[in-house]
Amino acid sequence: MGPLQAESMKKSVTDVGSDVIGALIILAVAASIVVGIRVYPSLREFLLAAGPWLLAVTALWIGGIYFRSRVLPQWNKSTQERAAEEERGKVALREQAARIREAEIAKYRQLRNEIERMPEYERWRNAVLEKYGRKCAVCGSAENIEVDHRYRSFYAIVQLYQIENIVQAYECQALWDVNNGAPVCKKHHDQTRSSRFHIADAVASQ
Question: What residues contact 113, with CB distance under 8 A and at least 6 apart?
């Protein structure tokens, strides 16, 4: 038996005990009234006058016991089941969204790899290096030089022109705009928004 089940059983026993005590109190009060009527005749007149109020109070007492022991547990159970069902639905939606993001990221990375293997990409890269030199546009370093889509990122161009294959990539002039390129060292390239290491965040934030 788990801790939650033990706690629930303990609460049930406590509630039953309270109900039994309440019932015994009602019986004791009723017995006292019967005895009092026989011993004190004047008490009968008082009870006849106060009888409706006593019956109303007794009915409320019994109704409260019934509500706490029968209605309230069922209501709590239904509420907990609805909350659990809603939480399972939220978890399923989050998992589905995560799978969709992973699929989008994988699709983009595959497309990018295919584009970077195109002869047109190599020509664009060499044209940028020839125009701007082989030094980092940020720090001036000549080591580990890469070429970056500077003003409009590679990812932004792919999304804007809805490029899904290398044929569409070849026909997209914005992708091969030399003026949109810049030589940067690997350190600063990895820090740009267009870096492939940040693409997962870009897709997830949509």
Answer: none
3-class SS of residue 183: strand
- Per residue in 76-86, pLDDT (tens digit) is 888 888 888 89
User: Who's near 182: CB < 8 A, 6+ residues apart?
Assistant: 128, 132, 137, 147, 148, 150
Using CA atoms, how far residue 7 sits from 11, 20, 58, 69, in Å, is 6, 20, 31, 16
Q: What is the pTM of this model?
A: 0.55
Residues 6+ apart with CB under 8 A from 63: none
Angle, CA of 138, 140 and 142, to the nearest 5°: 120
Q: What contacts 111, CB < 8 A, 6 or more positions away?
A: 158, 163, 164, 165, 166, 169
**């990122």: which residue's tokens?**
153
Distance CA 30, CA 77 (A): 35
Confidence label for 127 from pLDDT (cuts 50, 70 and 90)? very high
Q: What are phi and psi of 184, to 5 degrees?
A: -140, 150
DSSP run (H or E) holding 148:
strand 145-149
Distance of CA 97 to the CA centre of its chain: 11
